[in-house]
């Protein structure tokens, strides 16, 4: 029998939650299953749960007598019978979509013996009691009752049908949905119930995140690459249903959070943080950090896995959800609460299914369960569930005090049995202090996040106090297993091989060898090019970074090479100094985006699809000192010397009656860089650095560069000043996606050759470049004053989800618009330095527009782009289709 791993059991409503009317478990299950508005009528009518409560004293006594009679019969006739085990296992499936139904209640009828189906709909239920029927229920589905055979083991498939309300089961009254009256009061009281209204607050928070491998099979265990590590399976744990899963990663952190209203200040102190893992995966760790964030239910939209979900108490709640009010009043921690269920209006909407408890006096949120599944247009997520619990602090303010998250992630969301991962997070908030502000100097620090120097070296006693308990046996075994694997030479070799395949670098003790994808390249200047490179890794030093390469062109019979050295000064975390130097003597392509693959990557051997390559030789010396002042602000001061030499096309200067060739140009000077992105960690200062962060950037990113050329300094031939300013911003549009904005402008003062002027980034290659102009050739335009604007609006699934036959493909659409305009002063346009063949200034703005389809097979995108201006050049294309590849939720 092959049963998929079960997600850790989703907590049921608290034990002290009980309806005031005292109805039985049968009524509670019915509320959770059938009484949910599947499609609310557009006209004014509403549904209540009263019809389920038609239990008169007469029927109650009759029912009780029947139960007592049955009990006496068992006592008299069954005393000598030994109890036999009844075991039921199987899956729960949606009859309309044929997809699994996660988190369904599977219980023996008229009992509390039951389980919740896992994230892929599987369940295992076992008992020694004599039950003969099974009841299966879930919000939005009709409850199913099935007869089971006692004392046997059997497999069953349970089919649940989405529920549309049946008129004989509910009472329909004219008027407004009663849930709306309560929700209006919830929204009206948001400013009061939000902690942001307080003059100040502070609290301690503990986070723990664990990732487990699930749905692994014997075939995976016997995999050729994993066979040497049989001991890793010794830590396989078993759920209550007897299903195995393997813990693989564990992180925990202890933090203090501070807030002051006037002047507004937020501060976080990280007292401790640690991670146990046996693999290096920066994107996974970025994802783990994202799980630390607890969504604020009071916001109109909450962000999970980089997607905007409308809160069930959104100011415009009617647009996104159908609601049902449980007619009873419930008690949680002594507070009387309304209980409201909600469900997305559209099956594929990026929205939650769940329920919420609202305090009847303050209309504050007391508890909420939020859930979304494979139906939402989100990649790699089979199911995701959040529970938040709030407490009344000092009889004054409701505060989030506990949060739990369970996510089930896999490559193909619809595949029940595909191997994947459980992500589990627990957050506990305590020692909450209200309106007891610290002194003003405490909030005056610029850095909003402070990591103590001792945060990464805390002892076990610290963590016992932080989490207020010890690790479970499972977690202790996980730590031991990770330590063993990290010291296993065979495991190190396997991880090195995987890294080699992913980024082209292979670790050999204290150095990495690579990039293998640049070891061979062909181009029209060098013919076949051979290259070898190395760099140090953290095993060599976490303060000294060295790298270098040597290349040889068989066609031009020339060596090229380069190297870098950097020293990171010890000091306070996030406030580091870096001293570095670099040297390059290699081919250079002006007007080429750094967002593309390296110039000598093997894929560039295919050459451009329009225009031609126009490379030069560039010998560059530079030395710099960089400072990260606080989280999000980095600066760099550098000295540079650049010497440009021609290859196939000579550099030309005007003489009295003709032009003369120039052997080379040399420019030297000083450069200042600044980058600011609020809250961004590990932010390089360089202007052209491409940020490949996995998740949405919350705040704008600003980059500034000032370069000053000084004649006769290090043999420089020019005086000039170059000012550049760039803004990168991602603007959320919630249900309709998000907008990427990239704006840049610059001014260059001086009499200069085109090598020192601004050339916009063209991309005549086969693959799409987000940061470049995809129908512009290399070195097509030149300017000394310029502005550019690039806009991409990503609709996510907003449009394709409206098409029934297409929405299952989870395709996403986007619109593209790019604009560039630059001018040349007369002394650079008609001066002594001759422009390269085909190079010109923009007579009017260059523009390209298009649309794209992304999330094709979850990893690719295709852009359809039109060039709408500057069409006179015969070497340019007016339309093109380009693919690109990425990984995104």
Description:
With 889 residues, this protein is mainly beta. The protein folds into three domains: 25-34 and 50-169, Carboxypeptidase-like, regulatory domain (Immunoglobulin-like); 200-305 and 378-388 and 401-486, no CATH class; 569-656 and 673-885, Beta Barrel (Porin). Helix content is 12%, strand content 42%. The chain has twelve helices and 43 strands. The strands form seven sheets. It has an 18-stranded antiparallel sheet that branches. Strand 27 (527-536) and strand 28 (544-553) form a beta hairpin. It starts with 24 loop residues before the first helix and ends with a strand.
List the helices and strands and how they pair.
Elements: H1 25-33, E1 45-48, H2 57-77, E2 86-94, E3 105-108, E4 114-116, E5 122-127, E6 133-137, E7 144-147, E8 153-160, E9 171-174, H3 178-188, H4 190-193, E10 200-214, H5 218-221, E11 237-238, E12 244-260, E13 265-276, H6 282-291, E14 301-304, E15 307-310, H7 317-320, E16 321-332, E17 335-344, E18 353-359, E19 365-373, E20 381-393, E21 397-410, E22 420-434, H8 440-443, E23 449-451, H9 460-467, H10 473-486, H11 489-503, E24 506-508, E25 511-513, E26 520-523, E27 527-536, E28 544-553, E29 558-568, E30 577-589, E31 615-630, E32 633-645, E33 651-654, E34 659-662, E35 665-677, E36 701-709, E37 720-732, E38 738-749, E39 785-796, E40 812-823, H12 826-829, E41 846-856, E42 860-867, E43 879-885
């Amino acid at each position: 029998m092959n049963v998929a791993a079960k997600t850790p059991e989703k907590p049921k409503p608290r034990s002290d939650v009980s309806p005031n009317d005292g109805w039985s478990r049968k009524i509670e299950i019915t509320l959770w299953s059938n009484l949910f508005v599947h499609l609310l009528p557009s006209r004014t009518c509403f549904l209540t749960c009263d019809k389920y409560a038609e239990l008169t004293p007469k029927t109650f006594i009759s029912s009780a007598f029947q139960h007592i009679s049955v009990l006496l019969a068992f006592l008299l006739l069954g005393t000598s019978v030994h109890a036999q085990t009844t075991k039921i296992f199987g899956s729960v499936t949606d009859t309309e979509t044929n997809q699994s139904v996660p988190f369904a209640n599977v219980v023996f009828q008229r009992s509390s013996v039951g389980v919740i189906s896992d994230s892929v709909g599987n369940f295992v239920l076992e008992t020694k009691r004599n039950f003969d029927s099974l009841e299966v229920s879930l919000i939005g589905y009709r409850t199913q009752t099935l007869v089971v055979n006692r004392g046997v083991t059997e497999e069953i498939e349970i089919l649940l049908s989405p529920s549309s309300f049946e008129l004989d089961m509910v009472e329909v009254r004219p008027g407004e949905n009663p849930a709306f009256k309560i929700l209006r009061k919830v929204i009206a009281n948001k400013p009061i119930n939000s902690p942001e209204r307080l003059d100040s607050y502070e609290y301690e928070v503990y986070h723990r995140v664990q990732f487990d491998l699930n749905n692994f099979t014997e075939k995976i265990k016997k995999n050729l690459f994993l066979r040497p590590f049989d001991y890793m399976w010794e830590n396989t744990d078993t759920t209550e249903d007897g299903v195995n899963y393997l813990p693989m990663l564990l992180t925990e952190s202890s933090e203090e959070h501070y807030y002051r209203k006037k002047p507004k200040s937020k501060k976080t102190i990280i007292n401790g943080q640690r991670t146990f893992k046996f693999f290096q995966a920066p994107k996974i760790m970025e994802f783990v950090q994202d799980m630390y964030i607890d969504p604020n239910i009071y916001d109109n939209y909450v962000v999970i896995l980089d997607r905007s979900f409308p809160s069930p108490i959104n100011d415009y709640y009617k647009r996104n959800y159908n609601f049902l009010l449980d007619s009873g009043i419930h008690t949680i921690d002594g507070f009387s609460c309304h209980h409201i269920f909600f469900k997305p209006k559209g099956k594929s909407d990026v929205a939650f299914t769940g329920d919420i408890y609202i305090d009847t006096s303050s209309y504050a949120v007391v508890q909420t369960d939020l859930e979304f599944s494979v139906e939402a247009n989100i990649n790699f997520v089979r199911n995701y569930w959040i529970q938040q619990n709030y407490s009344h602090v000092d009889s004054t303010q409701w505060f989030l005090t506990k949060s739990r998250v369970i996510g089930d992630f896999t490559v193909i969301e619809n595949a029940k049995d595909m191997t994947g991962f459980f992500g589990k997070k627990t957050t506990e908030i305590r020692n909450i202090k209200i309106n007891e502000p610290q002194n003003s100097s405490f909030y005056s620090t610029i850095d909003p996040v402070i990591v103590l120097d001792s945060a990464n070296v805390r002892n076990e006693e610290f963590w016992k106090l932080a989490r207020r308990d010890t690790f479970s046996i499972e977690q202790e075994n996980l730590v031991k297993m990770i330590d063993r694997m990290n010291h296993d030479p065979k495991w190190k070799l396997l991880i090195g091989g995987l890294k080699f395949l992913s980024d082209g670098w292979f670790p050999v003790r204290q150095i990495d060898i690579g990039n293998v994808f640049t070891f061979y390249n062909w181009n029209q200047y060098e013919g076949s090019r051979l290259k070898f490179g190395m760099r140090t890794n953290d095993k060599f030093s976490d303060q000294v970074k060295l790298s270098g390469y040597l290349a040889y062109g068989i066609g031009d019979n020339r060596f090229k090479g380069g190297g870098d050295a950097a020293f990171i000064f010890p000091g306070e975390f996030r406030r580091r100094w870096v001293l570095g130097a670099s040297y390059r003597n290699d081919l250079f392509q002006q007007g080429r985006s750094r967002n593309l693959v390296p110039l000598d990557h093997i894929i560039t051997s295919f050459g451009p699809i329009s225009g031609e390559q126009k490379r030069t030789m560039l010998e560059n010396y530079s030395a710099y000192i960089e400072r990260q002042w606080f989280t999000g602000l980095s600066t760099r001061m550098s000295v540079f010397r650049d010497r440009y030499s021609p290859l196939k096309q000579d550099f030309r200067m005007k003489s009295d009656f003709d032009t003369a060739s120039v052997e080379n140009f040399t420019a030297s000077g000083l450069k200042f860089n600044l980058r600011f992105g609020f809250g961004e960690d590990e932010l390089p200062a360089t202007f052209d650095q491409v940020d490949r962060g996995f998740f949405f950037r919350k705040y704008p990113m600003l980059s500034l560069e000032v370069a000053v050329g000084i004649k006769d300094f290090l043999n420089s031939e020019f005086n000039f000043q170059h000012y550049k300013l760039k803004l990168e911003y991602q603007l959320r549009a919630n249900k309709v996606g998000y907008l990427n904005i990239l704006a840049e402008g610059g001014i260059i003062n001086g009499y200069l050759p085109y090598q020192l002027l601004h050339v916009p980034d063209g991309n005549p290659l086969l693959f799409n470049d987000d940061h470049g102009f995809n129908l512009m050739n290399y070195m097509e335009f030149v300017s000394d004053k310029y502005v550019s604007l690039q806009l991409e609006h990503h609709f996510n699934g907003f449009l394709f989800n409206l098409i029934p036959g297409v929405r299952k493909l989870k395709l996403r659409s986007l619109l593209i618009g790019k604009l560039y305009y630059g001018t040349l002063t007369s002394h650079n346009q008609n001066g002594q330095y001759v422009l390269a063949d085909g190079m010109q200034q923009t007579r009017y703005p260059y523009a390209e527009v298009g649309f794209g389809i992304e999330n094709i097979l979850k990893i690719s995108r295709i852009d359809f782009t039109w060039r709408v201006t500057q069409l006179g050049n015969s070497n340019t294309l007016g339309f093109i289709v380009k693919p690109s590849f990425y990984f995104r939720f």
